[in-house]
Model the fold of this input.
Amino acid sequence: MWGMIATWRMALEGVGKGAEMLRQGGDAGDAVERAVREVEDFPYYKSVGYGGLPNEDMEVELDAAFMDGDTLDIGAVAAIKDYANPVSIARRLSGEPVNSVLVGEGAERFAHKEGFERKNMLTDRAKAFYRKRKKEDEQELKPYKGHDTVGMVCLDQKGKMTAATSTSGLFMKKKGRVGDSPIAGSGFYADSKVGGASATGLGEDLMKGCISYEIVRLMKEGLHPQEACERAVLSLDRELKERRGKAGDLSLIAMNNKGEWGAATNIQGFSFVVAAEGAEPKVYLATLGEDGRCTFQEASREWMEDYMRTRMAPVEE
Ligand code: GLY
Done:
């Protein structure tokens, strides 16, 4: 038994690579790192890695994390610049007994000493998005529509579970802003005795519910991943609206150590990818019902074609 689940359609190619490793008996740590790196390397995904959209100073500052569900080791980097694969740096940090979460210059120094690949992560395309956004009147802080963190949960044939995230965070964020993605329990959590979860959406709100840990906790109480995701998302969405008048985007995926999976969201248009034994990785689209519950359907061929076309369309400034 093995499986993998990831946020957003952009994870598909990476999940394909990771799933192949799992099928051949590979390790959940290696598979999830490989899968996230694939997303980080693709220049047309504008919220992760190379080609990620910059902060308000036109700098690409990246956040990433890795968690080993056997040992509960966690590694993370935040606001790191000029390194190609933040998830790999996070994974390396997860092996450190202390100093395993590093930010900014400290993270860059560690990456340099450890020989990680340096790269200017700001592409011409991302600069064009920046200039376009600068011209627009609306400067409201919100996640760039339809794109966000890649978050993954992975189960290998030995029963080991891992979780990993990678993101450029909010487009036009303040320099030094850190979202949920490198924060254990908020952006991700994995416990091989139970399962794992990962988040995408507005970090500032996801952190208010420590929502990935909450989902794992609910699974530990015996809930199916679907029930755990729905309960956690509905409850945080409700609390935020009641106390603050509004809730940011909250979308979660989870898998337990039996390979059962679930997803929930408070927005329309959330997509995610699932790979499991005996099936090709599939993209699902979530539809949010009026009762706040989600239904899923496999993405149509038209949707898939349209997705790539719009991702790669020229930026009209
Ligand atoms: N969920 C990603 C962020 O808020 O940075």
